[in-house]
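Practice problem: predict the structure.
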Amino acid sequence: MLRSICRFSRFGSGALIFLAITTLAHIAVAAESSSTKEARNESEKQLREDVKKLAADDWEGRGLATQGINKAADFLAAEFKRLGYNTELFDGTPFQKFSVTVSNKLGKPERNVLTFEPTEKTNADGKSLEKKTQTNMPLLLGRGFTPLSIGGSGKVDLPIAFVGYGISSKDDKYDDYAGIDVKGKAVIILRHEPQQKNPHSPFDGDKDSMHAPLVRKVSNAYQHGAAAVLFVTDEVEIRGKVAAQRKRWQDTLEKAKTEFDALAKVPKDDLEALDEERLRLLRVIEQLKTQGADLGKEFDPLLPFERGEGSDARRMPVVHVRRIMVDQLFKASGHPSLSKLETEIDEDLKPRSFEIKGWRLQGEVHVERIEAEVKNVVAVMEGSGPLADETIVIGAHYDHLGRGEEGTLLAGSKEIHNGADDNASGTAVLLDVARRLAGKKLPRRIVLIAFTGEERGLLGSGHYIHNALFPLSKTVAMLNMDMVGRLKNDELIVYGTGTAKEFDALVTKINGRDPFHFTIKREPGGFGPSDHASFYAAKIPVFHFFTGLHNDYHRPSDDIDKLNIEGMRRIGEFVTEFALDIANEPKPPEYAQVGREMFGRGGSEKKGARPYFGSIPDLGSRDEGYALQGVAKDGPADKGGLQAGDIIIGLAENKIGNLDDFDSALRKFKGGDTVEITVKRAGEEKKFKVTLDPPKG
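Answer:
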């Protein structure tokens, strides 16, 4: 290169100096460009390695009930420590531990014993039956009844009532609970709905309506004060199964006849063809045997223990009972059969509910809750100077759905849900940001948190909020990354642009820098289906970075081959710029509350035909009732006086035990209705009037 400079010495010293300066500048730019490219390549290589580990089959989808999530936690802890962050925070570890219920299983057989027990010799009219002898009716586990995981445990000695299909619907002018008091009683409820085969039925014709799911029926029973639920399968369901089984058997019988005819037509000297046809016929005969045996089986099978789902398991027992046992009870107490009652309800759509006098449900139901210790992984880089006691949290959740845990959108799947985008991508980018910030001396403290339990309802971030390592009053911002692995056409969604007065302008400023220039969709609200919502409910400004939903969401197909690693690297650079700008700004961001927000996926404010209430659930709460993490500004709950920390235990005349009860009760009203809300606040019951808004969306 020096040889090239000397070649132009004839142009004079000035020209030579100019040329030298220009050439050296080009050399510096080339070196910088080469260095930048190398750094980006190294960043992408590291991101790819990190996400490959996190989304590996060996780590079992990072489900709360797997060993894989512990492998992920150990990996993150080691990386934070290697980068120089302080990880000796909780008894010398980075692990903020807490317990969650990860699954339920059927309890001990000796603790699952139920009996229909006569208490006096009376019939349905209360008249004496002294000349008749009544005996108890044991409901044998696995033969007469089975507990359902949706319910709870406990000893029972309860009066009994039949409440038809267990439906209360103002819109359809049908209420199985009208005129009957079921408080403190065990209620017998038919599955499904009246007029199931009638396309003109008010209950969504011949399709299941919102009243059909077990969780809805249990919620309605709880709201009316029931102490236990006994489900019984309706006759329409049983007849349909019998018909389907008989048709399968008849179809196979026709197939067998066809194979017999085919065998008869095979030439006797064609031994190979004879053997092939013989084998085909034998396979069909085996099918006939199996299906014939099925025809002789009980066509009222007990539901599996795992049947039923909801936002939370009940404390009251919920079981499934065979029809024959209920029919025996009805006959002994002088009531019509289930079949007759179903027919009558179908004919006129009028409830046929009644108390079963002279009988009680006695015994015990035992459902075992399987607890697991889970942990947030936390690392700290202390600030320096007068603002060192102020904190910026940067986080991403590292848990996912394991082998098809609660939340999977592939029903019944036991495949590993690797969750490459959700949220191995955000976790890998969290590590990328940690590398970019490592060793810097910033005015404010940086706290990195890999949250657990997000998929179960923001459990990890909720736990941190209730057990913060540093004062929340001095936590000036939270930056969250969830599903940032599918950047397409440079379109990036940024939530929280309205949660601080400075944030919208900050997005514009940082995105205007090279090399960003994303096409940004701004969402001003701070509530949403990820961990930033827990912080915003605590009045902390938030940003949440997200590249959008896709068809692989919460399915086993969310794998690493579909990730945009370059996009993840750019998002890591982007988030780092936000952290640096907020850390170096003399004044902290000024919190702002955004009005009329919806919580979104996993929360209470779902779109639909129910009125808008404006509440944000605290899904990590274990208190009985519907706990509030916050309320939307200027929403009905806010205007009515409700606030974060309240636990709703009543809505009008409805008892509220969890989120499902709240959702179910709210659907009984419409926009414009004013309802009385009963809450527990700091241990005291208080009542508020809330005027509901029309449904959103």
